[in-house]
What we know:
Elements: E1 5-12, E2 21-27, H1 34-44, E3 48-55, E4 58-64, E5 69-70, H2 75-86, E6 96-100, E7 103-110, E8 113-119, H3 134-138, E9 150-154, E10 164-168, H4 172-177, H5 182-185, E11 193-198, E12 205-211, E13 216-219, H6 226-237, E14 241-246, E15 252-258, E16 264-269, E17 271-279
Parallel strand pairs: 2-3, 4-6, 10-11, 12-14
Antiparallel strand pairs: 1-2, 1-17, 3-4, 4-5, 6-7, 7-8, 8-16, 9-10, 11-12, 12-13, 14-15, 15-16
Amino acid sequence: MTKPVPIHQVDAFTNEPFRGNPAAVCVLDAPRGADWMQAVAAEMNLAETAFLSREADAWRLRWFTPAVEVPLCGHATIASAHVLWETGRAPAAATLAFETHSGRLAAAREGEWIRLDFPALPPRGEPCAPPVGLLAALGLEGARAASAPLVYEVPRPNATDGPSWLVGLASAAELRALAPDFAALRRVAGHAVIATARGEGAHDFVSRFFAPKAGVDEDPVTGSAHCSLAPFWSARLGKAELSGLQLSQRSGVVRVRVRARGARVDLLGRALTVLRGELLA
Protein backbone atom coordinates (compact mmCIF):
# COMPACT_ATOMS: atom_id res chain seq x y z
CA MET A 1 0.00 0.00 0.00
CA THR A 2 1.24 3.49 -0.83
CA LYS A 3 2.41 5.44 2.20
CA PRO A 4 -0.20 8.07 3.13
CA VAL A 5 0.70 11.70 2.45
CA PRO A 6 -0.07 14.21 5.23
CA ILE A 7 -2.45 16.92 4.02
CA HIS A 8 -3.59 20.05 5.80
CA GLN A 9 -6.18 22.68 4.93
CA VAL A 10 -5.26 26.16 6.09
CA ASP A 11 -7.20 29.42 5.94
CA ALA A 12 -4.68 32.11 4.99
CA PHE A 13 -4.77 35.90 5.33
CA THR A 14 -7.16 35.61 8.26
CA ASN A 15 -7.24 34.69 11.96
CA GLU A 16 -10.85 33.47 11.77
CA PRO A 17 -11.89 30.01 10.57
CA PHE A 18 -13.76 29.84 7.26
CA ARG A 19 -12.54 33.30 6.24
CA GLY A 20 -9.56 34.32 4.11
CA ASN A 21 -8.34 31.96 1.39
CA PRO A 22 -8.22 28.19 1.97
CA ALA A 23 -5.23 26.24 0.69
CA ALA A 24 -4.34 22.57 0.92
CA VAL A 25 -0.73 21.72 1.83
CA CYS A 26 0.83 18.32 1.06
CA VAL A 27 4.18 17.56 2.71
CA LEU A 28 5.99 14.96 0.58
CA ASP A 29 8.85 12.59 1.44
CA ALA A 30 10.10 12.99 -2.12
CA PRO A 31 9.06 14.96 -5.21
CA ARG A 32 6.07 13.66 -7.17
CA GLY A 33 5.12 14.03 -10.82
CA ALA A 34 3.17 17.03 -12.06
CA ASP A 35 0.27 14.88 -13.27
CA TRP A 36 -0.22 13.42 -9.79
CA MET A 37 -0.03 16.86 -8.15
CA GLN A 38 -2.52 18.28 -10.64
CA ALA A 39 -4.89 15.39 -9.94
CA VAL A 40 -4.66 16.01 -6.19
CA ALA A 41 -5.32 19.73 -6.69
CA ALA A 42 -8.39 18.91 -8.79
CA GLU A 43 -9.57 16.54 -6.05
CA MET A 44 -9.14 19.21 -3.37
CA ASN A 45 -10.89 21.77 -5.59
CA LEU A 46 -9.48 24.77 -3.70
CA ALA A 47 -7.97 27.87 -5.24
CA GLU A 48 -4.50 26.39 -4.63
CA THR A 49 -2.91 23.19 -3.38
CA ALA A 50 0.74 23.46 -2.34
CA PHE A 51 3.28 20.62 -2.50
CA LEU A 52 6.42 20.70 -0.34
CA SER A 53 9.50 18.50 -0.45
CA ARG A 54 12.87 18.98 1.24
CA GLU A 55 15.65 20.25 -1.04
CA ALA A 56 19.11 20.94 0.50
CA ASP A 57 18.75 23.98 2.76
CA ALA A 58 15.28 24.88 1.45
CA TRP A 59 11.88 23.46 0.60
CA ARG A 60 10.82 22.88 -3.00
CA LEU A 61 7.36 24.46 -3.31
CA ARG A 62 4.89 24.13 -6.19
CA TRP A 63 1.34 25.45 -6.45
CA PHE A 64 -1.59 24.07 -8.45
CA THR A 65 -5.13 25.34 -8.98
CA PRO A 66 -7.74 22.70 -9.89
CA ALA A 67 -6.81 23.35 -13.53
CA VAL A 68 -3.16 24.49 -13.88
CA GLU A 69 0.19 24.95 -12.16
CA VAL A 70 0.92 28.60 -11.35
CA PRO A 71 4.32 30.34 -11.07
CA LEU A 72 3.57 32.37 -7.92
CA CYS A 73 1.07 32.11 -5.06
CA GLY A 74 0.98 34.04 -1.79
CA HIS A 75 -1.77 32.44 0.27
CA ALA A 76 -0.55 28.86 -0.28
CA THR A 77 2.98 29.99 0.70
CA ILE A 78 1.61 31.47 3.95
CA ALA A 79 -0.22 28.18 4.48
CA SER A 80 2.92 26.13 3.76
CA ALA A 81 5.03 28.08 6.25
CA HIS A 82 2.27 27.78 8.85
CA VAL A 83 2.15 23.99 8.42
CA LEU A 84 5.93 23.55 8.63
CA TRP A 85 6.11 25.49 11.90
CA GLU A 86 2.92 24.04 13.39
CA THR A 87 3.94 20.42 12.76
CA GLY A 88 7.52 20.88 14.02
CA ARG A 89 9.07 20.21 10.62
CA ALA A 90 10.83 23.57 11.02
CA PRO A 91 11.89 25.33 14.25
CA ALA A 92 9.42 27.96 15.41
CA ALA A 93 11.96 30.79 15.04
CA ALA A 94 13.36 29.62 11.69
CA THR A 95 13.22 31.70 8.53
CA LEU A 96 12.05 29.35 5.81
CA ALA A 97 13.43 29.30 2.28
CA PHE A 98 11.34 28.06 -0.64
CA GLU A 99 12.65 27.17 -4.09
CA THR A 100 9.92 27.95 -6.63
CA HIS A 101 9.29 28.75 -10.29
CA SER A 102 9.64 32.41 -9.23
CA GLY A 103 13.02 31.96 -7.60
CA ARG A 104 13.84 31.71 -3.91
CA LEU A 105 11.18 33.07 -1.57
CA ALA A 106 11.32 33.38 2.21
CA ALA A 107 8.89 33.30 5.12
CA ALA A 108 9.47 34.44 8.70
CA ARG A 109 7.34 35.04 11.76
CA GLU A 110 6.59 38.59 12.84
CA GLY A 111 4.53 38.34 16.01
CA GLU A 112 1.25 36.64 15.08
CA TRP A 113 1.80 37.48 11.42
CA ILE A 114 3.75 35.59 8.73
CA ARG A 115 5.97 37.76 6.53
CA LEU A 116 6.73 36.68 2.96
CA ASP A 117 9.63 38.03 0.89
CA PHE A 118 8.22 38.20 -2.64
CA PRO A 119 9.17 39.93 -5.92
CA ALA A 120 7.64 43.32 -6.67
CA LEU A 121 5.63 43.20 -9.91
CA PRO A 122 4.59 46.81 -10.53
CA PRO A 123 2.16 47.50 -13.36
CA ARG A 124 3.45 49.32 -16.42
CA GLY A 125 3.79 53.00 -15.60
CA GLU A 126 1.00 54.37 -17.80
CA PRO A 127 -2.57 53.20 -18.42
CA CYS A 128 -3.03 51.18 -21.60
CA ALA A 129 -5.89 50.40 -23.95
CA PRO A 130 -7.86 47.52 -22.42
CA PRO A 131 -7.77 44.22 -24.31
CA VAL A 132 -10.80 43.47 -26.42
CA GLY A 133 -13.78 42.45 -24.32
CA LEU A 134 -12.27 43.19 -20.89
CA LEU A 135 -14.48 46.09 -19.80
CA ALA A 136 -17.62 44.46 -21.19
CA ALA A 137 -16.85 41.22 -19.32
CA LEU A 138 -16.47 43.20 -16.08
CA GLY A 139 -19.67 45.17 -16.69
CA LEU A 140 -17.71 48.41 -16.98
CA GLU A 141 -18.66 49.50 -20.47
CA GLY A 142 -20.89 52.40 -21.41
CA ALA A 143 -23.70 53.47 -19.10
CA ARG A 144 -23.11 50.55 -16.73
CA ALA A 145 -19.81 52.04 -15.54
CA ALA A 146 -19.82 54.55 -12.68
CA SER A 147 -16.58 56.03 -14.05
CA ALA A 148 -13.99 55.42 -16.74
CA PRO A 149 -11.69 52.71 -15.34
CA LEU A 150 -7.94 52.88 -15.88
CA VAL A 151 -6.30 49.68 -17.15
CA TYR A 152 -2.64 48.77 -16.61
CA GLU A 153 -0.62 45.81 -17.87
CA VAL A 154 0.89 43.69 -15.09
CA PRO A 155 3.92 41.47 -15.91
CA ARG A 156 4.02 37.98 -14.46
CA PRO A 157 7.16 35.92 -13.71
CA ASN A 158 7.76 32.95 -16.02
CA ALA A 159 4.26 33.25 -17.43
CA THR A 160 3.34 31.65 -20.75
CA ASP A 161 -0.27 32.88 -20.90
CA GLY A 162 0.34 36.63 -21.08
CA PRO A 163 0.07 39.46 -18.57
CA SER A 164 -2.61 40.16 -16.02
CA TRP A 165 -4.58 43.40 -16.05
CA LEU A 166 -4.97 45.85 -13.21
CA VAL A 167 -8.21 47.84 -13.41
CA GLY A 168 -8.45 50.96 -11.27
CA LEU A 169 -11.98 51.90 -10.16
CA ALA A 170 -13.34 55.10 -8.62
CA SER A 171 -14.56 53.65 -5.32
CA ALA A 172 -14.88 50.62 -3.08
CA ALA A 173 -18.63 50.68 -3.75
CA GLU A 174 -18.03 50.31 -7.50
CA LEU A 175 -15.62 47.46 -6.81
CA ARG A 176 -18.14 45.63 -4.60
CA ALA A 177 -20.78 45.96 -7.31
CA LEU A 178 -18.71 44.18 -10.00
CA ALA A 179 -20.47 41.09 -11.32
CA PRO A 180 -18.18 39.71 -14.05
CA ASP A 181 -19.34 37.53 -16.89
CA PHE A 182 -16.77 34.77 -16.35
CA ALA A 183 -17.48 33.01 -19.64
CA ALA A 184 -16.72 36.29 -21.44
CA LEU A 185 -13.68 36.91 -19.24
CA ARG A 186 -12.20 33.57 -20.32
CA ARG A 187 -12.11 34.91 -23.88
CA VAL A 188 -10.09 38.02 -22.95
CA ALA A 189 -6.37 37.93 -23.72
CA GLY A 190 -4.09 37.53 -20.71
CA HIS A 191 -4.11 35.61 -17.47
CA ALA A 192 -6.28 37.36 -14.89
CA VAL A 193 -7.75 40.65 -13.66
CA ILE A 194 -6.89 42.60 -10.51
CA ALA A 195 -9.60 45.18 -9.81
CA THR A 196 -8.81 47.79 -7.17
CA ALA A 197 -9.90 51.07 -5.59
CA ARG A 198 -8.86 53.36 -2.76
CA GLY A 199 -9.70 51.85 0.62
CA GLU A 200 -12.00 52.73 3.46
CA GLY A 201 -11.42 53.04 7.20
CA ALA A 202 -8.32 51.16 8.37
CA HIS A 203 -7.40 49.90 4.88
CA ASP A 204 -5.46 51.90 2.31
CA PHE A 205 -6.84 50.02 -0.70
CA VAL A 206 -9.32 47.30 -1.61
CA SER A 207 -9.21 44.72 -4.39
CA ARG A 208 -10.81 41.72 -6.07
CA PHE A 209 -9.14 39.09 -8.27
CA PHE A 210 -10.61 37.10 -11.16
CA ALA A 211 -8.79 34.20 -12.89
CA PRO A 212 -11.34 31.99 -14.68
CA LYS A 213 -8.74 30.73 -17.17
CA ALA A 214 -6.83 29.19 -14.24
CA GLY A 215 -9.97 27.50 -12.91
CA VAL A 216 -10.61 30.14 -10.22
CA ASP A 217 -13.43 32.53 -11.13
CA GLU A 218 -12.87 34.76 -8.09
CA ASP A 219 -10.00 34.13 -5.69
CA PRO A 220 -10.87 34.94 -2.06
CA VAL A 221 -7.54 36.60 -1.10
CA THR A 222 -4.65 36.80 -3.55
CA GLY A 223 -1.14 37.30 -2.20
CA SER A 224 0.54 37.41 -5.62
CA ALA A 225 -1.77 40.23 -6.75
CA HIS A 226 -0.41 42.30 -3.87
CA CYS A 227 3.05 42.10 -5.48
CA SER A 228 1.51 44.55 -7.96
CA LEU A 229 -0.96 46.32 -5.68
CA ALA A 230 1.77 47.22 -3.17
CA PRO A 231 3.94 49.30 -5.56
CA PHE A 232 0.85 50.65 -7.36
CA TRP A 233 -0.74 52.10 -4.21
CA SER A 234 2.57 52.98 -2.54
CA ALA A 235 3.36 55.33 -5.44
CA ARG A 236 -0.09 56.91 -5.35
CA LEU A 237 -0.43 57.29 -1.57
CA GLY A 238 3.22 58.06 -0.76
CA LYS A 239 3.45 55.26 1.81
CA ALA A 240 5.83 52.29 2.00
CA GLU A 241 3.60 50.31 4.40
CA LEU A 242 -0.07 49.77 3.57
CA SER A 243 -3.03 47.60 4.46
CA GLY A 244 -5.13 45.94 1.77
CA LEU A 245 -8.56 44.36 2.12
CA GLN A 246 -9.75 41.90 -0.51
CA LEU A 247 -13.50 42.28 -0.96
CA SER A 248 -14.42 38.69 -1.79
CA GLN A 249 -17.27 36.93 0.01
CA ARG A 250 -14.76 35.40 2.48
CA SER A 251 -12.55 38.54 2.56
CA GLY A 252 -9.07 38.84 4.05
CA VAL A 253 -6.37 41.32 5.00
CA VAL A 254 -2.91 41.59 3.42
CA ARG A 255 -0.42 44.02 4.93
CA VAL A 256 2.32 45.09 2.50
CA ARG A 257 5.67 46.83 2.62
CA VAL A 258 7.55 48.09 -0.41
CA ARG A 259 11.28 47.65 0.09
CA ALA A 260 13.92 50.26 -0.68
CA ARG A 261 14.61 50.36 -4.45
CA GLY A 262 11.29 48.63 -5.01
CA ALA A 263 12.54 45.24 -6.23
CA ARG A 264 10.92 43.23 -3.42
CA VAL A 265 7.80 43.46 -1.30
CA ASP A 266 6.86 42.05 2.08
CA LEU A 267 3.42 40.46 2.29
CA LEU A 268 2.10 39.86 5.80
CA GLY A 269 -0.82 37.65 6.70
CA ARG A 270 -2.14 35.35 9.38
CA ALA A 271 -3.24 31.72 9.08
CA LEU A 272 -4.93 28.89 10.94
CA THR A 273 -5.40 25.18 10.27
CA VAL A 274 -8.98 23.98 9.83
CA LEU A 275 -8.40 20.38 8.72
CA ARG A 276 -5.73 17.66 8.99
CA GLY A 277 -5.72 14.27 7.34
CA GLU A 278 -3.96 11.78 5.09
CA LEU A 279 -4.06 11.40 1.35
CA LEU A 280 -4.31 7.66 0.66
CA ALA A 281 -4.25 7.52 -3.14
